[in-house]
Amino acid sequence: MKNYYTEPNGYLESIQKGLLAVRSYDLRVSHGIGTRNEQLAKLKKELETADAVVVGAGAGLSTAAGLTYSGERFERYFFDFARKYQIKDIYSGGFYPFPDEETLWAWWARHIYYNRYIDAPKPVYPELLKLLKDKDYFVITTNVDHQFQRAGFDKKRLFYTQGDYGLFQIADGSVPETYDNEEWTMKAMEAQGFVKDENGIFTVPDDKAIKMRIPTELIPRSPDGSAVTMNLRSDDTFVEDAGWHKAAAAYSDFLRRHENLHVLYLELGVGSNTPVIIKYPFWQMTANNPDATYACINYGEAYCPKQIEKRAICINGDIGETINSIEEQSHF
Predict the structure, then answer these.
(1) What is the pLDDT of residues 238-262, one digit of tens each?
(2) Most buried residue, 74, 102, 211, 297, by most Cβ within 10 Å?
(3) Per-residue H/E/C for 78-127
(4) Structural domains of the chain sorted by starting position, each given as residue range(s) with its CATH number in brackets
(5) What pTM was estimated for this model as a whole?
(6) Which bin fits 302, alpha (ψ -120 to 50), beta or left (φ > 0)?
(7) pLDDT digit string, tens, across residues 126-166
């Protein structure tokens, strides 16, 4: 697709940095220097003294906030799909070959609603904002659940690289525009028989009498009647609209303005699925700036290259618990 945008592209720039990191580092890794308490104290100091904080967030952050894709949440809201189609979790259900569009979009209405239009069960995102609200920060994330904005983060300081559950796009990606789906999602949830509780949240009725299909007339379409799909990066039809490019340019500009300052690159819950977007670029930018620090909070995957371990903080554990531990020590 023709690129209609000429601004700097922080996404491509990050991938280039990530690829450079892959070529630059060997297989030796470090899990940090010092005890957990020493690492926490070091991170607290960095948050207090850094000129800027670049947050890189992956799926582990939303998982820590309670937005899990399996277990109790899945069984509560998708029990009927699980029973009929043997779907095991919300993620895999997004790829299931449903028999018709009415069923497909009934699934996606729930998938969207319970991961985009309600607050996360645990206050991890608001607690993170407390640590950052007085800092010069920017967030790059592969998450698509909008939880940063729901928690009050400044939209101008956010870059969602992989899309947004709240947006539709033309199915073949031929039009560089996206379409808000909130109104459609609410109608599709109501059409399935979900009812709102005292807090205005859609929930399963007591008799569990919900439908796995929506009316044909509710199948979503673009304003000109074309077929739509989710605005999620899965192949080369993904639409990078004007808002996406504006955020990509803002991220590029933020990195450029701070590249020689005291920067904390704070990685939260980034796994091995998309390391070239956040993890590897953070390593490379830390290595290139002697005043930078790399910090990683991750359950089971907190590590860094040996080459930057003296300027790295690796905390293996739950992100929410770690943020609370820092808040207890902090006097911002």
Answers:
(1) 999 999 999 999 999 999 999 999 9
(2) 297
(3) CHHHHHHHCCCCHHHHCCCCCCCHHHHHHHHHHHHHHHHCCCCCCCHHHH
(4) 27-64+123-164+240-329 (3.40.50.1220), 72-119+182-219 (no CATH)
(5) 0.94
(6) beta
(7) 999 999 999 999 999 999 999 999 999 999 999 999 999 99
